[in-house]
């Protein structure tokens, strides 16, 4: 039997159905609110509003539980790779051995960017913001690969794989532009994360091949941050995409949304805060005295979360990964 909630406006009562989210929680379907009542809802920040039903990822703000497509994030971090997890998020299931091989081949096939795009990097100042460069370059993909989504599928072209392959190369080239080094092209023989690190840190006189530990921790960190439920960037992608804008334009808009000081910019601020702590030579408790009674200022520096009641699983797992990683580095150094 369907459940309803009754809303009274003056002397009139209106019924609206209750629906269940993928996590079992109830919600009010108010799509007919204006049609029935002439009213609209007002919810700044979408704190009480879901714009869609999604089965891609689920995060419980009370317990901190996080899963992708029903798989617990901790299991994916320990037993999957970033490419496997990407396949899971895009297609809804973990790949078979053959599917993973085919998907990896697609990523290798599309890893190069059009050579004319190299000229675009020359137009950026050496110290341009990385997100500015990334956004412009991703938008430009629309000009070099203008096929419509359906047309591409008919040709066997997967836009998702194409973007996943090329954005890694664009990000690496953006870094090289900032540090003033020659671009290093991807090699088919390297796995996805290895290739990114190879492009970042190789120079013409010396190739950089990451250790297994470094390659693994990058895979694990990218798995942790592969999807963020209904956050600002995901919302932006869906809003822009709903106009039938192409994938590249939609993702570029999401990159710009990530830029703000209340979104991805908070991570940048957190790094700056940690550097400031080191420069101050104060103990951590002593340094944080200045934030007492000013939680908003602390939030702006990358600490805390508006929606999470419990500590984020991402933060817990990432903290353990870094502690284990640096313990091993120190152990290796002590044995040399």
Automatic annotation (TrEMBL):
> What InterPro entries does this protein's entry cite?
Citrate_synth-like_lrg_a-sub (IPR016142), Citrate_synth-like_sm_a-sub (IPR016143), Citrate_synthase (IPR002020), Citrate_synthase_sf (IPR036969)
Entry's Pfam families? Citrate_synt
The EC code for this enzyme is 2.3.3.16
List the GO molecular function terms: citrate synthase activity
Q: What class of enzyme is it?
A: transferase
Q: Which Gene3D superfamilies match?
A: 2.20.28.60, Citrate Synthase, domain 1, Cytochrome P450-Terp, domain 2
Q: Extract one GO BP annotation from the record.
A: tricarboxylic acid cycle
Q: In which pathway does it act?
A: Carbohydrate metabolism; tricarboxylic acid cycle; isocitrate from oxaloacetate: step 1/2
Domain of life from the UniProt record: Bacteria
Descriptive protein name: citrate synthase (unknown stereospecificity)
